Each structure stands twice: as C-alpha cells, then as structure tokens.
Amino acid sequence: MENLTNLDLMIDPALKVPDENNEEKFLNNPIVTLGPITKQYLKSVKNYITDGNRFVFSDGASKVQISVISDEIIRVRMAPQGTFLADFSYAINPYDHIITEVKFTETELQYLIATPKVTCAVTKADFLISFIDRNGNLMSSDAKPMHYEENVQFGGYYVYCSKTCQATEDFYALGDKATEFNLRGKRQVLWNTDTYAFAKNQDPLYRSIPFYMSLNKGYCYGIFYDNTFKTHYDFAVESHDCTSFWSDGGELNYYYIHGPQMVDVVKRYSMLTGTHQMPPMWALGFHQCRWSYYPDKKVKQIANTFREKKIPCDAIYLDIDYMNGYRCFTWNDRYFPDPKQLLTELDEIGFKTVVIIDPGIKVDDNYWVFKEGKANNYFCRRCDDYFMEGNVWPGRCQFPDFTNPKVREWWGGLFQGLLDAGVDGVWNDMNEPAVFGSGSFPDDVRHNFDHHRGSHRKAHNVYGMQMVRATYEGLQKLQKNKRPFTITRAGYSGVQRYSSVWTGDNVASWEHLKLANVMCQRLSISGISFCGTDIGGFTGEPDGELFTRWIQLGVFTPLMRAHSAGDTREREPWSFGEPFESICRKFIELRYKLLPYLYSAFWQHYKYHMPVLRPVIMLEPNEQINHYREDEFSFGDSILICPVLQPGITNRKVYLPKGTWYDYWNNQKYKGGKEFVINTPLDSMPIFVKAGASVPEYPVMQYVNEVELEFLTLKTWYSEMEEKSIIYEDHGENFAYKLDIYLEKTITVRGTNGSFVMEQTMFGMYTPRYEKYEHIVYGLPFKVKKVVVDGKEMKKYSVDATNVLSFTTTKQFKKIEILA
Q: For the Glycoside hydrolase family 31 TIM barrel domain, which residue ranges apply (predicted)?
C-alpha cells in the first residue's frame, strides 16, 4: 500500500488513464469531446453542506453526497445536474450499523470525512475522492473525476467512475463469472442473460452482482455499486493503472467497504445486502433433477431406485413437463392424473418435491392465472400501453411485473394449489427474463419499481430477484411457520435473502467442472453462499469418471443437485454402473454425515455473515501466490477441499495453508505453508481438517430425519493452539430460531504434550432429543492414561492401534481433560 504521510498529496492530476471509449485523455480535462459524445467531468468543488453523517459537495452544477453508513462503510452518490433520484434499493437490507464517531475537517486542498477506521478525502481542485485507512495507507482513489453523459434517447445519464490500480492489486467477486478467480485483466458486463451451454469467459451470464473486492499487499476493500442498469467493469484492461465501472443509466451510487481483511469486507457487504435465512435441513441433502421426469410412474421409479440402492436423496424435481401445456400452477392430467397421491407416496419414503415455475403466463382467456392477471393489470406493458408479449415454452405469453408489490402478493398466493398437492419447494427459471427469439424484454417495457417507476433498462437485472422474492414471501405466508425452499436462475445483489441459486445451463466437460469450482467460490464471497451447479453438466454427455468427480465436488457445494437436459442420457448416481455407483454412494453418504457441520456453517453465515465457502486467498491474503490459487477452498471453518478436476490423474498437488492439518481419510498429520503431492484414486478426493477442529457428524441416513438420533458423533483433532468450533442445532424446519429457540455450542480445545482439554459452552433454548456424544479424538501426541469429564474420571474409553481415542459423554458436558 502507498503510505500517505501528507494527506494533501493525493493523486497527480496529470496522470494519464483511459476513458471508456478507448481513447486516452488527461485527468485534468473537465470536458472531453469524442465525436458526438460529450462527457461531463466534475469540476472543482464550489460549496458544501453538512447534515449529520451526510455531506453534499457541489461544483455548481453537479452534486455528490457522501454518507457515513458505519465506521467501515461510506456511501458515494452523484447527481449530474444536482437532483438526486429517490433513495430506493432492492439490494439494501435494513441493518443496525454502528457509527462510533464522524469528524469533518477542511484543509486548504481538501475535505476530510473521518471515522475511527477510514477517512474519505475530497480534493477541492478536481473533485477526486479517496479512502485512507487510519494508518495513512491509501486504499482507494479516483483516477479521474466522476463523470457522465446525457442519454438523449431515453433520458437520464450514462455514469462513470474510475479508480487508480496499483501494480500489485488484484480483484475478486462480481458473482459467478465464468472466468479465472482473479479478475485482474478482465472486462465484465452485468446484464442478466439466458446463456444455454455457456463457454468459459462468456459474458454476461444469468446474474448481476455489482460487488468486487480489491486486494493489495494483504489489504482489502470492496466496492458495492448499487445500480440496476446494464453495468460494465474494466479491471486494468485498457490501462494497467486504472479500474473503471460505468452504467447505461441510473445513479453513480456506490459503497466503499473497508477491510482490511477480505473476510471483513465480505461480512460487511453481507450486512448491507443481507444473508440467506436458515434453510430447511432437508434442502442441504442431495437433490435429483432432470428435464424432465414424467409421467408419474417414472418419478416413482427414480425415487424407489434411490431407496433400493440405498443412495441417500432428499428431493426430486419436476421440470416444465409436469404442467398442462407449460401453463404455470397447473398439472398435466395425462402425466400426473393424481399429483396429491404421487407426492404423498414420495413423502412417505422421504422425498420432498420441488417444481419449476417460469414467469411467462400463456395468453389464454380460459386459463385462470392469465384471466386474473389480465383483469388486474398485473402484466408488463410497453411505452405505448400495449402489453409486452413474447414466446416462451407455452407459446405466446405475457409477463407479470414483479416490481409491483401488488403483483408480488398476487403471485405468492398462486402457490396455494401446489402446496395443497404436497409441493415442498419452488424452482424459479427463465427469469432473466428470457424470451425466445428476442432474448429478453424490449427496453421500453415499463415497470412499477415499487412505485419508483422505470423502464426495463432499469428493472431488467432485478426482475428475477423480485420474482423469487414474490415466490419466497408467498410460500412463507402460505406455509405459516415452515421455512420455504426456493432456487432461482437470475438475480441481483440481495437475492440471497430469498433464494438459493445454481450456475445455470452448464456443459458436461472437465472445463466446466473447473468452472463449477471457481463459480461457487465466487458466489460465496459475493454474498450468495447457498449455491451449486448442475452436477454432471446440464447438456452434453459425461463419462463415469467426470460424473463421479463432479459428485465429489458437489458434496462440498451448499446446494447439491444433479441435473440434466432431456436430450442427454440419464445421469442418476447409478447410471454409469460400477465402480462409479459405489463411489457416488460413498460420497453422498459423506454429505449426509457432514450435514450438522454444514448446517452450523449456514448458521455462521446467517448470524455472523461468514461465507460458507472460503477461497484460499481469504485464508491467506498476504501470500501473493494465493492471489491466483483457485482449485482449493475451505468448506466452513475447518475443512479444506481439494477437488480432482482433471481426468485420469492418480495424484495432485495440494497446498495446505499455514498451521497443522490432518488428512480426513487416514488422519496423517501435515505442517502447512507448502505444497504436498496427495494420491487421488477415483474413490478418493483430498480432504483435510484443521487441527483443533470439532466436527459433528450424523449416522448415514437415506434422507434427513429418517431415524431419530440416539447420539451425535463429535470428531476432534488435536491442536497445540487454542481453537474454537461452533455447532448449531434447531428444529430444522420452522422459524423458531428467530425467537432464540436454538442451541449454539462452542467447543474450545487446547493441548500440550501431556494433556488435551475440550470445553463446551452453550447458548439458546433448544434441546436436542439425543442424550449422548460419541467422541472420537485424533492426533493425540501421547498415550492416554486418564479421561476426566467434569471432574470425574471415566472408567470406559478405548484407544486403538493408531492412538485414536473413543469415549461417550452426555451432551451437557462442560470440560473434558485427556491426560497422559
């Protein structure tokens, strides 16, 4: 980082950087004319006003509002002609941010707005905005003044912001872009797009998440640019010393999020935009999907085969063929003559049913959903007041305006019939929105935008998010105290408050397996932890090896769903025969054993804003080599996942971060901070557990809650350092956890050469029904002579030939001492 001993010395005004039209201009040129386009740059600051924690600066025409949101978050807005738009956002989630102190100072050359953690500086002469940490390190600075140009076709403005880029600076997040994990040297576009069988580096994709992080010499900050119009990013492509973002309309409205660690930035971004609600426990099991399973006999055959082969599975999906002529909220009487009976039979053997819903409503005056929408003017209209129409699966369709609160409420109520039939979850698809032929809606379609009005240019990127919001809120209302499960293809920042996501229509290839690994990590640090991919690839034909390796990776993605297109061969876990079937079973069983660990990781996301998947760069940001390391990640606090992403290999290099690690399979101990070569036969994948971890495990079940738990297995790995693990439990399906009816347990361990101590503290009002812990302790460096639980020496314990200790305690233990 550049240390500023004098805050008045910010940026050389003669620094050359590119603008977004591929021509270089000097920064101190306030108006740049490029043919017919005139860009208006902010000029010198003429005046300012203060209002509590908000400060408005003006150059005589434009205004810039700088607001302190918290000690670590500062918001910047620009009004090109001095009038701000209504302050409304679908992304921002109410949160009680903490502001300790704000100081405003004026010097000869600039204005300073300071919190205890970060200072925002505005230079008077050229309106450049910078952010400096409390040690005087320059974190972020404008490369040139914010600027804009008038949009003569639609009204409003194109808005631009450029930041200086240091030689050692790298960039991350921006949702699930199908490219390398490090975004430096990339240009990206945010415009939700249906991209069937997308290729590596294809852009844009299904979601728009306008949040990125900068990492430079171990220091991290984030920029959340809350603009729903088509948005563009340039990460040091046009010029190695400049990063830019700009939009085709709306406000230049961004949040600077201070670190200094990457994990801090991710947590604070989640405070701004919200976290996933706790999912129903069954939603973390294995899901089986295909376009499509029909008729009902086929669905029952698939379900029964899972049970006969004893391959765990919790959910089966019905794609568009369950509908009558692809009409949403209907059933095809030919394929599903008695859906309630079918879903009851599935439920009896432990299957939840998830059905697809699309936004396109068939134009048919005999179709009750269309009649209701038409009667209440719930469908989108074009600028000349005709209804927007387009062809999708049902043929000629109209589309609800999900940015209208009345439409969302109506849409949510439509699910009553599906719920009455026994449906458990809803899959929202085609909601970019996708339209055959044209790709999406025309720009002139009008939207309510929660009474803030806007064209489709403004509403496009939030359309899918508001659709799944309507779905989620409808299910929540109709299901009373039952947690909804939803999944969506399209979304915008904040969509995590309403849904899980998957990465879209991928391809059965090793390249896409690598992309799956990167895209889920990127989503997780972009606020969307409940994510997954179509295991095996949606289109194309995987062989048994590729499918098996994808299952292995899928065990450690929060959403684990296999899915495939109807023109491909079936790909259930048994579809490739042996040995692949047995290996898939082994790993799916591992997923079910680790469910209490994954559930606890979700609690840490919901309560403490921690991402479930954490890339190695988040664990060790100071190691420059990790800036490009993308094939490993931490699954929750304690488990490092090193997937096999190439065919035919029998070993791979694994980097273990600093500290002590244990091989999950054989408990071999490793000292981290370097690479190791680990064997990777097809029936294995490198998995490592951090020393000091306490990992809860269930017995293998065929579906969640198949049997009543008699005990919880608690596996603990020895550590000389003090380490803590969180174990979370609740009812698993209702919202009682919001009333503190849950149990959060902290297991603290520490060891010496002659002892190992485990302590448990508990908070909450939930009481698990099991009574015992079955303890297994690995890595003890001494022979066990005594085990003392809450001051009483145990008579029964066992130590095997590898010095693994096993014993049983009550679930209420407070302190265990293992002594040499």
A: 277-601
Place of tokens 């607001």: 67
Query: Residues 429, 534, 730, 733: which is the catalytic one?
Result: 429
Q: Rounded to whole angstroms, how far apart are CA atoms 388 and 376?
A: 15
Fold equal for 43-260 and 708-819: yes
pLDDT, average across residues 403-413: 98
Residue 157 C-alpha from the chain's centroid: 31
The two three-digit tokens of residue 462, written as one number = 């939030």
pTM greater than 0.85: yes
Tell me how far apart the alpha carbons of residues 768 and 510 are, in angstroms, rounded to a whole number: 43
Q: What is the DSSP letter of 130?
A: E
The CA distance from 142 to 66, in Å, is 14
* Distances 11 to 46, 129, 255, 593 between C-alpha atoms, Å: 20, 10, 21, 55
* Angle value at C-alpha 185, between 74 and 225, nearest 5 degrees: 25
Which pLDDT belongs to residue 37?
Answer: 54
Collapsed DSSP state (helix, strand, coil) of residue 306 = helix
Structure tokens at 735: 């919202």
- CA atoms within a 13 Å half-sphere pointing along the CA-CB vector of 561: 27
Task: Domain 43-260: give its CATH superfamily.
Answer: glycosyl hydrolase (family 31) (2.60.40.1760)
Res. 32 pLDDT band, cuts 50 70 90: very low
CB 220: neighbour CB atoms within 10 A? 25
Query: For residue 94, is the peptide bond before it cis, meaning its omega torsion is within 30 degrees of 0?
Result: no
By the 8 A CB rule, do 257 and 72 touch? yes
Phi-psi region of 744 (alpha: psi -120 to 50; beta: other; left: phi over 0): beta
Q: Is the bond preceding 204 in cis, omega lying within 30 degrees of 0?
A: yes
HEC profile of 338-374: CHHHHHHHHHHCCCEEEEEECCCEECCCCCHHHHHHH
Which three-class secondary structure state does DSSP give residue 182? coil
Domain 708-819 class?
mainly beta
Indicate if 429 belongs to the active site: yes
Q: Is the pLDDT of residue 715 over 70?
A: yes
Q: What are the structure tokens assigned to 623, written together?
A: 């190691």
Q: Are 695 and 639 in contact (CB under 8 A)?
A: yes
Tokens 């134009």 belong to which residue?
Answer: 363
- Written as six digits, the tokens of 362 are 């068939």
Give me 432's structure tokens: 């970019």
List, as one string, the DSSP characters of 228-279: -S-EEEEESSS-TTEEEEEESSS-EEEEEEE-SSHHHHHHHHHHHH--PPPP
Catalytic choice (142, 424, 505, 572): 505
What's the pLDDT tens digit per position in 759-812? Answer: 999 999 999 999 999 999 999 999 999 999 999 999 999 999 999 999 999 999
Active-site residue (options: 176, 432, 632, 733): 432
* 432 in catalytic set: yes
DSSP SS3 for 514? helix
DSSP three-state, residue 310? coil
Contacts of 82 (CB under 8 A, 6+ apart): 58, 61, 62, 63
CA torsion through residues 528, 603, 469, 359, sign: positive
Q: Is 477 helix (H, G, I), strand (E, B) or coil?
A: helix
- Parse the chain into domains and list their residue ranges: 43-260, 358-421+431-484, 614-690, 708-819
The reply to whether omega before 542 is within 30° of 0 (cis) is no
The yes/no answer on whether domain 614-690 falls in CATH 2.40.50.140 is no
Encode burial over 463-491: b for 16+ CB neighbours within 10 A, e otherwise: bbbbbbbbbbbbbbebbeeebbbbbbbbb
| Contacts within 8 Å (CB) and 24+ apart, 303-308 | 303/346, 303/349, 303/351, 304/349, 305/572, 305/574, 306/572, 306/702, 307/349, 307/350, 307/702
